[in-house]
Design goal:
By secondary structure, the chain is α/β, with parallel strands linked by helices. It contains eleven helices and ten strands. The protein folds into three domains: 109 residues, Cobalt-precorrin-4 Transmethylase, domain 1 (3-Layer(aba) Sandwich); 113 residues, Tetrapyrrole methylase, C-terminal domain (Methyltransferase, Cobalt-precorrin-4 Transmethylase, Domain 2), CATH 3.30.950.10; 45 residues. Strands 3-2-4-1-5 form a five-stranded parallel sheet, with helices on both faces. It is globular, with a radius of gyration of 24 Å.
Length: 304
């Protein structure tokens, strides 16, 4: 089997990403490879090359990933890595890397680690000095955010909600305090229940977009308030994978402050003894705008 092209090694024995534990020459690398979330054409040429040349492909659902590999006539063996065997498997995989084998970690769909196992392995590789290289590609979280029509920055990704009601409510209460757009994965089996909980804990009037079957032929999006989406889901027959994008609290969606308001916020911060940089930073935080936006407001004020 032809090994993947490694490129030039760093001249020092301590490679740039190896930390305090530099791996010996010839040790293997871990590739973190994104896979399609619905449309097989989204698998990148580089991902195909890497998946075809590594020693093992590591996956939570080996049957699903094998279908993907078969579609592209990739014959690399697949090895199971999931939450129930990760503690046991990580030392074995580190031993494989130490012998020079390259490994690829994939998700069942999308970018690994966002809602799948693999964190323990990536962290262990970093701590032991093995190279961890990314092969980026599809991600349901960022794809949904990009097409939702809701403010993309800042956003917080919350993954799947807890299955139990008490834990779910606690998780949502913690997210509710953030002045961010939220991205969540919802279970189709609990869609109405989870949307109802989102409305109750995040705010019934918060604007949201529910997206399903991303990149597939029947990709769809339902927009409305969380309360409206909860009512819709109560009468729907959930099909496919769902990603929920929740807009920031209403205050964050208000029009930008006036120049007079911006100047007053800076003056108030300065009166508390902050230097100019600190006053600008504090004023931007108070007004919930970026420092660049604040600078623009102040410059326009000064030019009058």
């Amino acid at each position: 089997m032809k090994p993947p092209h490694r490129g030039p090694r760093h001249p020092s024995s301590l490679t740039p990403d190896s930390g305090a534990h530099a791996p010996a020459r010839g040790t293997g690398r871990l590739f973190v490879v994104a896979t399609p979330i619905g449309n097989l054409a989204d698998l990148s040429p580089r991902a195909r090359e890497v998946l075809g040349e590594v020693r093992w492909v590591l996956a939570e659902d080996t049957r699903r990933v094998r279908k993907l590999l078969n579609h592209f006539e990739i014959h690399t063996p697949v090895r199971s890595l999931h939450e129930h065997n990760e503690v046991r498997e990580v030392p074995r995989l580190l031993a494989e890397l130490a012998t020079g084998s390259d490994l690829a970690l994939v998700s069942d769909a999308g970018t690994p680690l966002l809602a799948d196992p693999g964190y323990r392995l990536v962290r262990a590789c970093r701590e032991r000095g093995f190279q961890v290289l990314t092969v980026p590609g599809p991600s349901a979280a960022t794809a949904a955010l990009a097409v939702s029509g809701l403010p993309p920055i800042p956003f917080t990704f919350g993954g799947f909600l807890p299955a139990k009601g008490g834990a779910r409510g606690t998780a949502l209460d913690e997210l509710a305090s953030l002045p961010h757009t939220l991205v969540l994965f919802l279970s189709p089996h609990r869609l109405a229940l989870e949307l109802s909980a989102c409305a109750a804990h995040l705010g019934r009037a918060r604007e949201a977009a529910l997206l399903a079957e991303l990149t597939k032929v029947h990709e769809r999006c339902v927009r409305g308030t969380l309360a409206e989406l909860a009512v819709w889901a109560a009468g729907a027959q959930p099909l496919g994978e769902y990603t929920l994008v929740v807009g920031p609290p209403e205050a964050v969606l208000l029009p930008p402050p006036s120049r007079e308001t911006a100047r007053a916020a800076v003056d108030e911060a300065s009166a508390r003894g902050l230097d100019r940089a600190g006053a600008l930073r504090e004023a931007a935080r108070t007004l919930r705008i970026t420092r660049k936006e604040l600078y623009t407001l102040l410059m326009r004020r000064d030019e009058r």
